[in-house]
Structures are given as C-alpha cells and as structure tokens.
Specification:
Blueprint: E1 4-5, E2 12-15, H1 24-46, H2 50-65, H3 86-102, H4 108-123, H5 135-144, E3 148-152, H6 157-165, E4 178-180, H7 190-200, E5 207-211, H8 214-222, E6 226-230, H9 240-245, E7 247-249, E8 255-256
Parallel strand pairs: 1-8, 2-3, 2-5, 3-4, 5-6, 6-7
Helix pairs in contact: 1-3, 2-4, 4-6, 7-8
Bound molecules: the ligand CSCCC(=O)C(=O)COP(=O)(O)O and magnesium ion (MG).
The ligand CSCCC(=O)C(=O)COP(=O)(O)O binds at residues 16-19, 27, 31, 106, 111, 114, 153-155, 159-160, 163, 187.
C-alpha cells in the first residue's frame, strides 16, 4: 500500500466532499437530479415563505451579476405591489436554476436553495449520503491522534451538515470540528484558505487539504496549505503534470500520521 506521511506541523485536516469523501455519482445522480425534478414544485409550495423569498432574492442578485455571461437566464425584479404573476416568476427561477446547474456552477445562491431543498428529503429519510468506506475509520483515527477535522465544500454548510447527519454510516456529524462553504470564498481562490486558517486559529501550513480537484489543490498550495489530491472511482482524470506535481492518495487509509505511530 502507498503511504503518504503527513508533515509533523499538520494539526488540521480539511476535507472536500464531492469526489473526496463522497462519490461524485451520489452528487450527480442523486442530489442534483432531486433538485431538477423538484425545484418547480418546491418553489410553488414554499413561495410565500421568508426563507424561500430570501433564496429567490439571492438568486436574482446572482442573475444580475451573471447578465454578461453567454446564455444567462435573468430573474425579473418583483414590482413590490403584489401584481406579479407568481407562476411567471417561478418559471424564471426554475430556468435560472437549470441554467446554473447545466454549468455545475458553485454560486452561494444556487447552493443555498439546493441545501434547503435537500433538507426535506434527508429529514424524511428519503435520502442517505454515501461516504467511501475508508472515510469514517480514518477520520476517527485522526481525531484519536489529536487532529482537528474540518469540511470545506461548495455545498452550503447546511447541506454539509445534512450529509454528515444523515449518512449510510449513520449520524457522523460529531466527527467534524467545523464547516466552511463558499461564503468564505471560492475553493479555487487561495485567499479562501488563508481565511479558513485564520478562522480556525492556525497557520496555513498547519492544514492538510484533501480534494479531488487540482485547481482547488493549487489554490490551497499557493496559500501555504499542504495538499493531497484524492483519486477516486468516477473522478475526473488528472494530467501527467498534475500527477507528478501533487501527492496522490486513493484512500484516506494511505495517510500516515507520525503522531499515531
Ligand atoms: C454538501 S455537498 C453537496 C454537493 C455540492 O453541492 C457540491 O457542489 C459539491 O462540491 P465540493 O466542493 O464538495 O466538491
Ligand atoms: Mg470535490
């Protein structure tokens, strides 16, 4: 078995979700289709609720920022006099969500709505999050060795907690010391990793970030974070340069913590 030694200065392990702890297929074949199939009905049912209107406002703001992009779908502003046809407005939001999802965009607005939609499905027991079998045993071992374990995903913090709280391994939320999402910044921007370190109260070189996406790994590395790229079944391939440049692991069990020897 390949073994990757974790540098002694590392005290925090920061985990990506999709393609790292969890199969991409779970996200692409279960989570995302659930949103596409149910978004219209969800908006029709919850339209009058404050949370839903906040989600729509955020999506509208994002749509304004996206207006210069090819194929962008606008969400008209509400007139405020109650004369708007909700069905017309709902269809604009649905079309915008479909457009964003067709590009796998990671905007906070889209992720917030998705998280709110998944909540009902997880809480009703209709969905359970999948984790690779090496994840839970390894995380337990790291924590026993004194490591802190955080999650950084484009999925909203609320959605992350749903996944860890309703998984095929049971409720494993207690294994995570904290969560970060795109509210702290995008995963391909190195400043996000500096902010995460400062929020945790450590230096960037105290963190080891595990991700499947080389652009995220590069951004973290630029901030001084240690990285390993996780190669899982179904993940996008890496270029030869990426394979040479990054430390690669195919299972969390390949990480060796000197402190746990
Ligand atoms: C709570 S994760 C849901 C999956 C998701 O929406 C997503 O965008 C995954 O992104 P990641 O940063 O975990 O690769
Ligand atoms: Mg990922």
């Amino acid at each position: 078995m390949v073994v990757l030694s974790v540098p002694a200065e590392v005290t925090v392990i920061l985990l990506d979700i999709e393609g790292t702890t969890t199969p991409i297929a779970f996200v692409k074949d279960i989570l995302f289709p659930y949103v596409k199939e149910n978004v219209k009905e969800y908006l029709q049912t919850h339209w009058g609720e404050e949370e839903c209107q906040e989600d729509v406002s955020l999506l509208r703001k994002q749509a304004e920022e996206d207006s210069h992009l090819d194929g962008a779908v606008p969400i008209p502003a509400a007139s405020g006099n109650g004369a708007d046809d909700p069905q017309w407005m709902i269809q604009a939001v649905v079309d915008n969500v479909y457009w964003q999802m067709s590009l796998d965009r990671k905007t906070t607005a889209l992720k917030q709505l998705q998280g709110h939609m998944w909540r009902a499905a997880f809480k009703a027991g209709h969905m359970k999050a999948e984790f690779f079998e090496d994840v839970v045993p390894a995380v337990r071992k790291w924590r026993e060795a004194g490591m802190k374990v955080y999650v950084y995903s484009s999925g909203s913090v609320e959605a992350q907690k749903l996944l860890f709280g309703h998984s095929t391994e049971g409720d494993i939320l207690e294994l995570v010391d904290g969560h970060f999402d795109t509210k702290i910044g995008h995963k391909v921007e190195s400043e996000s990793y500096r902010k995460i370190a400062s929020s945790i109260g450590c230096s960037t070189n105290n963190i080891l970030f595990l991700t499947d996406v080389s652009r995220e790994a590069s951004a973290a590395e630029e901030a001084g974070v240690h990285v390993a790229v996780v190669v899982r079944p179904g993940n996008a391939g890496l270029t030869d340069d990426e394979k040479t440049h990054f430390s690669l692991i195919t299972s969390f069990s390949e990480l060796y913590l000197p402190s746990s020897a």
